[in-house]
Amino acid sequence: MKINDVEKLTGLTAKSIRYYESKGLITVQHNKENGYRIYTEEDVLHLKRIKVLRYLDFSIEEIRCIQEQELPEIQRTLQRQAEQFESLSDTCDLKKSLCISLSKDYDMKNRMVREYDEAIEFLKGKEFEEVQESLRELACPSLPQMIVCTLVLGAPVLGLFLNIQMHSGNKEILIMNAVFALIGAVWISLQWRDYFQRRKYQKERMKEKGKQDVWVVLAIIPVLIGMFTVLVLIDRLVISLFAPRDWLFYEFQGGGDILLILITELPLFGAIVYLIERIRHVLKEKSSDLAVLFEILWNHKMIFFVVWCALFYFAVVNVAFVTPETIVSYSTLHPAGVTYEYKDISRVDTSFGWKNIDVREYKKKGTFSYRISIGEKKLVFSQPSINESIERYVEDTYLELEEFDVRVMSLGVPKKGSAKYSDRCDLDQVYVNRFLRIIENGN
Question: Domain coordinates of the chain in residue numbers?
Fold first, then answer.
């Protein structure tokens, strides 16, 4: 075959091929009639092998020595070369891994040459370069990112000092909190160590990313403000849509309050992301992956809007209101509400060891819950939202639950209650005593 055919098969230029021939790394036959070089399949394999070794930073002389060595010595040479790539550089890490792998596969002859040549073509290609750039961007921490990370991971440490004051006699809570605080402190230390190590080699990249991430950090402030605003708006919305006359208190059922907050925050977050990207565009800064995400959402806005409305509906309608004589329960299947009288209650369960949603077991076991059963339906009241026009409820928290329990127990409704885990309750003792009175009332 001719040299232009070899160029296509190996990815090498004609100049490089002739250079390797001039250095004696490859011996090519010549046509006796016209003196043209005649390349064989074996020559192509030799050139691919040279290409692989050159990618691994072997010099011409070192490659010549490798060609003269036996397999065990070749493997040792490759192992020694792998040790030279001990660095934080991503490219060096790749070459090190390739060297180690090649030292094990070198005796595979032709198959080895083809596979490693294809691997190098991919590693040198544009597609891998884009993937590698994205990975570097993700792995490269910025100063704003580190500050946010420290604040988040440092929360258990701050919580430990608060819990020492609130639960000085509860060793189990303090031990659990101390474990989380220790993990957070260690993680923070490791993150900052990695940050300063990377800063030695990626200072400019980290500076550039810091300029971009500062907008994200600033976006956290309106998100937090928006979250508190949403809490107020949710209360007003639910009351205006569902509250019956003379209502006393209400509570979302099945985690509807958490879902409602999350899905209400999504449009706000989307607006902030859009604002950030517009600012970057004006400042001619590099766009981020958030911009791509926002574009995807915007292109499918009708689908996401329908899904959002469905989730919003599911969250809002799962709520139960209590009045002086009735309980009005709204649900997905009964958005108009179903009204029950107190006498319809078949059972009451009270305890400090149950909660709908809580990832921390010790926290779950310290939360007081008042659960009523009406046939197969169960309603839970752990942290009710009160009618603020009732002055005594505003001044005395959880009084609404105690008064409600007195009315229910006066009807002779059976109750099952347990004071177990009451010592784990985070609330002031005055409220714990109230919960204990509720448990003891009619039990």
Answer: 3-135, 140-201, 203-319, 345-440
CB within 8 Å of 78: residues ≥ 6 apart: 56, 99, 100, 102, 103, 106
Measured from the Cβ of residue 386, the count of other Cβ atoms closer than 10 Å reads 18
Strands, DSSP E only, in 166-310? Answer: 249-252
In one-letter notation, the amino acid at residue 87 is S
Q: How would you class 198 by CB atoms within 10 Å of its CB: exposed for 0-12, middle for 13-18, buried for 19 or more?
A: middle
pLDDT of residue 363: 46
CA–CA distances in Å: residue 426 to residues 167, 218, 422: 8, 33, 9
Q: What is the DSSP letter of 373?
A: E
Instruction: Write the pLDDT tens digit of every residue in 338-378.
Output: 999 999 999 999 988 754 444 444 445 778 889 999 988 89
Cα separation of 129 and 123, whole Å? Answer: 7
Instruction: State how far the Cα of 158 lies from the Cα of 153, in Å rounded to an integer.
Output: 10
Amino acid found at 239: I
CATH number assigned to the domain covering 3-135: 1.10.1660.10
Nearest alpha carbon to residue 409 among 375, 380, 443, 374: 443
Give the C-alpha separation, 326 to 411, whole Å: 13
Q: Exposed e or buried b for every residue in 170-184, given b needs 16+ CB within 10 A? A: beebbebbbebbeeb
d(CA 350, CA 421): 12
According to the model, what pLDDT value does residue 410 have? Answer: 92
pLDDT tens for each residue of 210-262:
776 776 666 667 766 766 776 677 778 888 989 998 999 999 887 666 666 66
25 bridge partner residues: none
Task: Provide the percentage of residues in the chain whose pLDDT is more than 70.
Answer: 72
Amino acid 330: pLDDT: 92
Strand pairing partners for 416? 349
| Residue 112 amino acid letter | M
Q: Is 416 helix (H, G, I), strand (E, B) or coil?
A: strand
pLDDT of residue 303: 81
**CA gap 425, 438 in Å, rounded:** 15
Structure tokens at 143: 């100063």
Question: Burial level of 27, CB count in 10 A (0-12/13-18/19+)?
Answer: exposed
